[in-house]
Amino acid sequence: MTTPAPVLLPIGQMADATGVKVPTIRYYEQIGLLPTPPRSQGNRRLYPESAIQRLRFIRHARELGFEIDAIRQLLDMADQPDQSCADADSIARHHLADIQSKIARLNALGDEVRRMIVDCSQSSVRQCRVIQVLADHGQCLGDHLAEPIKINEK
């Protein structure tokens, strides 16, 4: 009995199956997140079906805000399923701390802009608090940088 030939998908079908645009797939291949696929006689990329799952992993990680280097490390871990997941946990914890720090900075920015709006007399630009504060950073309540929020490590 012969083994059926593996199904190979052209890049357009990969894009359709994953929602990732063709140039992005090429980029992920170029930076090594996706293995270089074989090519047809017409020099078209032909991806194995396993590449769909890998590309979905990359897309989901990007949607969650993970950086390319973290995704590369996570993919390497996913390729070795019997190893400890401590490193994956550490990457996720670091990413969460970054997210929380960004949220804190955005909240501080929101508070500052809200204060500018509330303090604005809305009479003339000469007396406009928004214009005054934007022209003189010294009138801000803070430096708009919040300390990163630390989370407990395991």
Task: List strands and helices in order, with pairings.
Layout: E1 8-10, H1 11-18, H2 22-30, E2 46-48, H3 50-63, H4 68-78, H5 86-119, H6 129-135
Antiparallel strand pairs: 1-2
What does this structure look like?
- The protein is mainly alpha-helical and 154 residues long.
- The chain is built from 6 helices and 2 strands, in the order βααβαααα.
- The protein has 2 domains: 70 residues, Multidrug-efflux Transporter Regulator, Chain: A, Domain 2, CATH 1.10.1660; 53 residues.
- The protein is elongated.
- The termini are far apart.
- The C terminus is likely disordered.
Task: Based on the model shown, name its key terms.
single chain, mainly alpha, Multidrug-efflux Transporter Regulator, Chain: A, Domain 2, 2 domains, two-stranded antiparallel sheet, 6 helices, 2 strands, 54% helix, elongated
Stated plainly, the CATH topology of the largest domain is called Multidrug-efflux Transporter Regulator, Chain: A, Domain 2
Ends distance: 52 Å
What is the count of helical runs?
6
Quaternary organization: single chain
Strand/helix succession: EHHEHHHH
What fraction, in percent, of the residue positions are helical? 40-55%
What percentage of the residues does DSSP assign to strands (E)?
under 5%
User: Which CATH first-tier class of the largest domain would you pick?
Assistant: Mainly Alpha
Q: Give the overall pLDDT as a whole number.
A: 85
Q: So what's the overall shape?
A: elongated
CATH-defined architecture of the largest domain:
Orthogonal Bundle
The count of β-strands is 2
Uncertain ranges: 145-154
Query: Can you tell me the number of structural domains?
Result: 2
Strand order across the biggest sheet?
A: 1-2
